[in-house]
Write a structure and sequence with these properties.
83% of the residues lie in helices and 0% in strands. The protein is mostly helical. Helix 1 packs antiparallel against helix 5.
Length: 120
Amino acid sequence: MSLDANEDAVVGVLKQSLRELETLGTQSLEDMLKEMKRKDDILPKLMASTGSHDDLFSKEISKYEHICQEIASNLEVQEQFLMHIQAQNDEFASIFNLKDYKGIAWQMQIMQSSSVLSVF
């Protein structure tokens, strides 16, 4: 199937956006969290603590606040990308007339199913 310039551009932009979204979703945040978790052993601090564990827990959990902010920021960017991709997908669907294609594919599937059932 050959595409005209407009169709090719729509497909290219949609593919690029999907790649960028995938990159956003796999940023180093996960690796950063895993590394912090691996290095974060508060057991010695718990054992040495004579005061309230709540204070210790509050202090220890606060070191993850910057990552939580980065994750929230990343999610916002991903949401924006998803809205952009939805618009690109809508354009793709209208150019390639996917609504009619789905209808034809559905009719073909019904005909194939009918022919299989007629054998029995």
